[in-house]
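Why does residue order matter? Because the sequence determines the fold. Keep that principle in mind as you read this record.
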Amino acid sequence: MKKRINSVSLVQNAKMMAALYLVLSLPMLAIMALAGGVMSQAAMSLVTMVVFVLAYVASGFVFTLIGAWVYNLVASMVGGFEFTTAEVKQS
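Structure:
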C-alpha cells in the first residue's frame, strides 16, 4: 500500500529537531569541558560552550522550520514523498 506525505507540521518538526540537536550537542559539551579543564590555558569558557550549544539548537530549529516550509511548498507542486507500508504481525 502506497502512502504520500503531502505536508509536514512546521513547528512540530522544528521542535523535534531542536530537541535532537540538544541531545546530540551534550556529549560535545562534555568533551569541550573536559578538554578545557585539561588544557593549562582554557580556550573556551563554560559560558562560551553553553552559548555554542544554544546557538546550535536554535539554528537547528530555524533551519528545520525553513526546510519543512520548503518541503510543503515543493510537495504541493510535485506531490511529496511516497513510500510503501506493510502490515506486520505481532508475535
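The first helix runs from residue 10 to 38.
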